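This week, work through this protein record:
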Amino acid sequence: MDQPPRIGRYSLVRRVGAGGFATVWLARDEQLDAEVAVKILSENWVEDEDVRRRFLAEGRFLRKVDSLYVVGVHDIGEADDGRPFMVLTYADGGTLADRIKAGQLEFGEAVRIITQVGRGLKHLHARGVLHRDVKPANVLFRTDPAGDRAMLSDLGLGKSLAEVSRITMPGGTPAYVAPEQVLGERLDHRADLYSLGAVAYAAFTGQAPHGVVSLGAVMQIDSPPPSMTTLREDVPDAIDVVVRRALEPDRDQRWPDLDSFLNALREAHTTGKVPAGLVPAAEMPKPSPAAVPVDQETAPASSGQTTVAAKPKRSRRAGVITALAAVVLAAAGGYGGYRYVLTRPVEVDNTPLSVKVPRDWHQKAVDAGKSLVVSTDTAAWQTNPNTEGVFVGLVNSRTLPSTATAPEGCSPATPEKSGDAVTFRYSCNNVPTVVERYQQVNDTTQLRVQVRDDNPTTRQEVLDSAKYQP
């Protein structure tokens, strides 16, 4: 959509971010003469009640916490077109992902950032909220008189600790998510601790641990990642030991809490020595299976407390089939489900095109290095409109189209223009729904992407993942 002049009482300055479900604008609160960020639900999700509910739940989670290290919510409302929005603290210093991409961080700077993010997590946990999606892209920076300050953002996957004490649906970002979260197990604060350890690993080395790109791969992790010194030779051994302890797949072998991890990290950085009393996780005695309270049955005792009966710990392998089934079900859901729909990155050899797709889109066809089709059956892509998949290609044009030919079985669509792109969302009968986008990538070239799939989450995420990077 074209930029509206204002949302509520906030005048919009420019768009600063966009995802599958919402767009974020830099705006000015004219009454307070202050810069703010306005996050508004994308118009194609306005009728989805589950997405609206989760969007508003994120605002409530953020509102629960008054912390310097968590993005604050200052207002919430509904735009003239019915879309909910929330007004957030504006972070003018970019993201940790940006800084990692720009080059190696100095060790003291990395420790400072991880400490501040850890404080934000502690404040969330104290208010009964688990973040569940801690990653560099969700660590923002705000400029203060004394420097900048790291803040946690995006609680789109946030859950109350009461909810995650029960079995939960899998979710998270593969490179940073705890294995037990992927398996849909009961969660506690150690899931966020694992993710913070993964962020620390990336801050020190420039790369996420393990390098996994799918939740299925996370299920196979059975040991901490390789030493950080394999990626950056000057990482002190003491820091390496502390961070990798946070990345134990078995949560009982991790640091017991955030304070233990953060204190050990600061001590390792300050003294250059492994903190006194730290036993390497690999040398810790393993609890007997019958004593591990992972699969628990709880019942209220007469005293008002909870009695816990422990069952033998379920192996990760045994839970894979159940978890995979849960992933399939979750992928059909709304807000948050898109985070684990895409499992396989696909590139065109020696060209700047790429896209991420579901695992069952296993066939790829390339046309002279200028386009690709990834689908369930590339041979049938042109002739069978029931074939699910994606086409990504380049078009020579200086002007975005105002009309487009509807695919077979679909009705013509009204163009949705947004900045340098135009999108057509077709209504289709008896064939998979189609969405098509043209994006101007330079003066003479457009990126054309067409996605066929009945799952709206899959369509949007595949569409947004397509890239042209010359």
In short: The first strand starts at residue 6 and ends at 7.
